Fold each of these.
Amino acid sequence: MNSLSVSRVVSLSLVLAGICVAETGGEWPSYRGPSGDGVAPEVLGKPWDSAGPKQLWKVPATNGFSSITVQAGVAATLVTRDDDGTPTEFVVAMDAASGKELWAKPLRMAKYQGGGDDGTGDNKGGDGPRSTPALAGGKIYAYGANLDLYCFDAKSGKLVWKKDVARDYGGKNISWQNATSPLIEGNLVIVSGGGKGAAFLAFDRNSGALKWKAEDDTITHATPTAAEIHGVRQVIFFTKEGLASLSPSDGKLLWRQSYRFNVSTAASPVVWDDIVYCSAGYGVGGGAYRVTKKGSEWSSEELWRTEGNDVANHWSTPVVKDGKLYGMFQFKNYGNGPVKCVDIATGKVLWSQEGFGPGNVILSGDRLLALSDKGELVIMAAKPDGYEELARADVLDGKCWSTPTLAGGRIFARSTKEAACFAVAE
């Protein structure tokens, strides 16, 4: 999906009492933003003062690590709710200006093999959907934990079409169930999770018709990344076999790079120029590869590779600015794990600052917006010469393993207990 130009971003408008108007400009329509790289196309604004950011609304959001997506005044996320006595995944659409629920539709039973915990210890993660819905053209696309893909009308909640990837394409789920989010690429919605010859699937986003299927890879929890390398648009999947890059127009395989798998891979690939970074926890570590193209032939060359968890991302995908990675580089360091700055070309750690846990960051201009796993919003400078914190505020109860959203002059964030919206200072 192409980035929105700054000129298209409409700033937040407020009435005298601080109540937001009904229409919200700007958008964050898919997991990790308009371009799928965690970069906001609008300016974050000045840091808030000691009182913290102005809260515009806060509503319950029961269980889940799904992030909030926003388009055309609609905000969407996945939660777990009771449906006739059965814990069930729901896609929820809210008015982005007020937080008022517009509609909620059940997906399938919420049962996460190996997920959650007993509520004790440092984790206290709870359970719930890990996938984030995508919005495009007045529709919401949700990919459930059971490999069930849905398209709903964004305003009414009417079901437009649905697919059972496990049943119809031989998909086999994994421990902790599916966590990947649907990728909107032009008129396609792309997912992974099918079986032999259908590991990667592209559907017409309006009709649901299958446009192509490809390869035999085994799904992980990592959402694919769309990027342009050497002038060629491609979608990069991170599977149990490693990296696989495909042409989004026809599913043709462009290049592969093997990468070790152990237990779970959950962070998405990160692209900077012709370098692709990938990482996993459980002792796997991070690595970067330079992708080359000679004629019609593609290849990848390892630039660096680490073992262990020093340069590793469990599920927190970093952002990249000027060849430097910024994000939560840690493994199961709940509550206080560090944010780090890492050179993408060498793997060198340039600085590290504890106090975040496995939350997530996004990039806005020369600033980072972080959501710590204990519910703090933090603004910091995106610079390689040292950590500089500009603002911090505790804004949410519950565990936050989701990614914050910046859209229309507002910050959207959620935890396993609640979702909230905050004004960005001008």
Amino acid sequence: MKFAAAGLVVLVLLSAGCKGGEEATKATPTLSAQVSPTVLPSPTVSPSPTVKGLFTDPRPTVPNATRSLGEKPAGFPPWDRSSTMVYDVVDGVEMNLGTGSLGNFSPDSTRMVWLAGPDPIHGGEAWMIDLSTNEKRSLGPGRFAAFIDNGRVGIVLPGSNNSEILDLRSGQREPVARIPSAQPTDTVVTPDGYELRKESRSDYPFLENAFVLSDPRTGRLLLEFEAYQVFPAGPRSLVVAMPPVLSGPPDSLGYQRGTVNIFIVDIAAGRAEFVATSAYTPPAWKLAADTAYVLWTDDFCGQPPGKTRLYDRRAGTITELNASLWATFTPDGLIASGAFGARELIDPATLQYTAVIGKAGDVSWSPDYRYASVGIWGGHGGQCG
């Protein structure tokens, strides 16, 4: 917020009778007869930064090509439905840690924690493994364990909701009401270190939200606009899906179809580049992006499922895949596909599989996508309701 200050004359009157700052503050200042006070204009607030070039009107989009994924390799053997497994997809090595839970990886991808025991959801022993040396360390009893950061693990104790934070270096335990890493958040950090915050602006199914991009280092507001979905798309850019334009009557489940426009937004310029208009078919419309590609699936839950389309940001071309993927991108630019954690890694340039996890339930991954884990896990809902 900037205020005009030109022409402001501030006179500081010094009084020999002032004994201190408090008395000086209470003194009534007088203006010299030779100087007239300047009347300041009312402060003005600059409008919030907006994104130029966004629109919702559909523009028919035809893919430039249609391709199929390569032949799927055998991959790792199917999960035995009880063991905690760790898969190294770089070296093609698997490790069975015995009966236990799905693993949780450290932010630096070097370690994993899990709960050992036949019923880990209700209680077992928390363990940590160093993924480079296979050295294991017991962390005591628990029914949930997850990394908060590289130096601390949050543990929920068996038979209660009592929780504690374990400092891995000192061994000290701090009782807490809730484990921070277990709490959902509507704020994500972009590769540039900006904070992207979402605020819901509509009732379920939350098709219109307010998004605010700010720099926490300076407190500066960078962008503020309304959209359906927004995600980081590599340095200096965002991928934006505008609120769907709905048409026609709701189906038997109350869902209404429509279209949704996709854009790439240049953060510095505050300008949007149109990518495509996609069909919008609830309840599961998927969007992802990185520095090279934008990926979306218009009807993941359809019968038959809708198609996935891949936009090449360099070439400006769209490829329709003969596949329906619930996917995101890994830090190395691979497509990570799977509704409850990726079971397949796919090269977007060649559309060949680079890793396949055998049939399993939920799958967790290290942040660098070198290691994957499967194990016993609690139930949850799905993308298709």
Amino acid sequence: MLRNILSVGGYTLISRLTGFARDIMLAAVLGAGATMDAFSVALRLPNHFRAIFGEGAFNQAYVPAYAHIAEKEGQQAANLFADRLFTVLFAIQLVLLALALPLMPWLVTLLAPGFREDPAVFALAVNLTRITFPYLLFVTMVTFLGATLNAVDRFAAFAAAPILLNVGMMAALSVSFLFPSAAYAAAWGVALSGLAQWLLLYAAARRARVSSRLVRPHMDAGVRRFLKAFGPAVIGSAGVQIAIFADTIIASLLPRGAYSALYYAERLYQLPIGLIGIAVGTVALSAMSRAIARGDEGAANRAQNRALAIAFVASAPFVAAFIAMPELIVAGLFQRGAFDAEASLASGTVLFAYALGLPAIVMMRSQISAFQARGDTTTPMLVSLGAIACNLALKLLLWRDWGAPGLALATAAGAWINLATLFVLGLKRGWTTPDPRLPGFFALVGMAALAAGLFAWWFAPLALRLTAGLSFQPLLMGVLAISTAAGVIYAGLAGIGLKATGLFRLLR
């Protein structure tokens, strides 16, 4: 499991680093104003649909079903099952694309009603979204092929695919003089990167002999089992996207720049979610699904405990950093060109609020796997909808007085409600059996992260003075110096403590 997590996490790290380079270019060129707000909507709209119908719901229902068929009926039957679902999914995406393009003004109005007050920004958002929306078709096919590869223990290509999105956008921005504006260049970079990602996954699937083809759909037992799990999974994924839709709608009603503050802060806090939470959850779901298909509940429980331990120890330093110096991190990465100190302060405040829910979001993937691996997508759906209801209520309560940070705080609270509810239900059903050493593990790692965060807060003024005279990016160098020193302290304290107490075995 750890090897696969490192494989996924390694490519995800490269993806996030290239993503930061992409966002640095976006911040320098588009800044944090109305143009960036319009492009952010254009990028987010296809991603909403992808998250609902693609990687969220589809993975949850598909990987356990594929693993079950492969284990019980053989690989040929599993491949036929995949072909039938691929045909249905492809047809749905074509219909969705054909409907969305002419209805784009209505969709943008639904997503960002505040843009209607500025006709120029609204028109730009509509035009950019028409360019980016075909990305959904390609990335949904990428998600399908990636899920199939994950089910046969091939994780690298799917984890590497998002790198092409970042590279494509940076390449387009570098030749933005060929487009009406830099925003149009970025939008075309998104669309073309979808094609590049699909080609990468198709080649990987062909090598693994699991590439799918169009066939005549047939409602056999495997497809019925999948659809039974897929329906609740779609609703559950839609619930999460409803919360993000709410952020987008409310942010469009706030002063200009609020949406950009959410965007840049979200990009940073998504780093540990993608690097750790998604990687651990993806591998845990695959491992637990195969163990349960064999009837080995003990192996499934061990996989989940290991996944929780890995997720927590890897995410704790990010939580400490985002709480100790959020504004400084944003400034070091993005404050240049059109992105000024005021934008850094706004995004840093949002990042602090997001960080409060980061441990729950990272560990939630492993907790959900306990249900999904057993074919139960209904319970996570109901829990998600309940948490989303609390989330939305808090957003409506906080947005007027707290602005964008209030939206992020509501997201953090909803994540903790979701995790706690899933944990209690898993205990009652006997699907979650926590290792008795986990509380001690969490406490020790938490104390190490707290010490590292306090050191970063204390060391920051000195580090910035020491790097102030550098000719190359003194602020960024200061952030790197603080992060490196605090990271060494965290790794040393956590490593020594876990070794001394014997808790390090939970990671193996």
Amino acid sequence: MRLINRPVAAVLALALAGTAPLAVPAVHETQARPAPESFADLAERLLPSVVNISTTQTVAARRDRQGPDVPQFPPGSPFEEFFREFFDRQQRQGQGPQAPQRPRRAQSLGSGFVIAYADGEGLIVTNNHVIDGADEINAILTDNTTLKAEVVGRDQRTDLALLRVRSDKPLKPAAFGNSDTARIGDWVLAIGNPFGLGGSVTAGIVSARGRDIRIGPYDDFIQTDAAINRGNSGGPLFNMAGEVIGINTAIFSPTGGSIGIGFAIPSNLATNVIAQLRDYGRARRGWLGVRIQQVTDEIAESVGLTGGARGALVAGVNEGGPADKAKLQNGDIILEFNNQEIREMRFLPRVVADTRIGAEVPVVIWRNGRRITVTVTVGELPEDVEQAAATPGPQDRGGAPVELPGTGLKLSAITPELRERFGLGADVKGVLVVEVQANSPAAERGIRPGDVIVEVQQEAVSTPADVQQRVARARQAGRQNVLMLIDGQQGMRFVPLPAGRG
């Protein structure tokens, strides 16, 4: 998976803020339309709204590299690959001279589109990764007019940025459409700046909706087979009414070129963020203050949740956050937020994000075998959210390692010697995993020696006997699985393990 101009980076956090819809341009309802005999009329009308984004930045020279600097070409250019391979080969053969130790100017190219123009000032939308780190940003119109651009606001989590330009001649804004009405199989046009070649038009269909490609907490991408390549980043995806229903952001490709799998940020997600960038210079997000994980069938069974796996499992609560103030707990399963059903874990960040900051909303949770409704006052997501600390448990107690039948685990209380052996901090409390049998249920679920069991069935444990008692109690209640809160190499997470037989 690639962002169109660079490799994808994985990120994770929680929430996005509700706001008034972007005033200009308006959002319109659309109907599916058949493909025309030609896209020429539509392309001619839309091309003036699309711009090329050119950025430059100073890149520090690397002091550990032999060989000359590779000449800078537009990202994805055939010349870029040719010269890079040539100079790399020279370096491997020891023919390259010492690289000059001086900063160099690097250039990047992408796309964008005008969304508003008034009184000589225009607003342009693009991807954040197109302008990230840039010292200078220029927007190039279809008639090759170059306008200097300044950043109004940017948002890394949704990879969106808003630019401002001054222009003596009027710019032609594009109108946002309703991405929720786009159906699989609908025709779409992608316009952008592939490989630095200038404005190019490609046609295809909506291949899929709601794609989660794991590059951010709000992944809900439109997938299309319209050819999208490096340099198309930030460009618009149009429907047949000429409305923007997506912002082209990423492609799936082993080479960096189009293989017919491209992804666009839906307009209905983007317009809220863009409006906030315009008004505040940043995205203001609603915040619940929890760490969550997916509810599996085993987890649902272990807590008696009927009707199948659904919702978002609370794996941690940020101290002092909105969820903490509302008394949400580790192990709660959020089934509804603000009267919206949470069918999967990944839906919760988007729903919280779209909720007005300061709103008091009902949250339906599953706790101790029954549905409970609590009221949460939505906060604003801090720029840097601290993770919640593990709740301190009882004091360490000694004892020999104990095998937990059917799981593949051997457990021990945390002694000073074991704390030092496994490098555990002084504040780590719970029951230590000292051995994991190969190919056991615990091993298959990623539990490793040195991990610590903090809770079993949402009750704190401090000795192997505590774990055995909780497991036995669950087994007597007819549970096939028990839910354990594990603090380990993968962070704090809930893991279902077999309860075994009595």
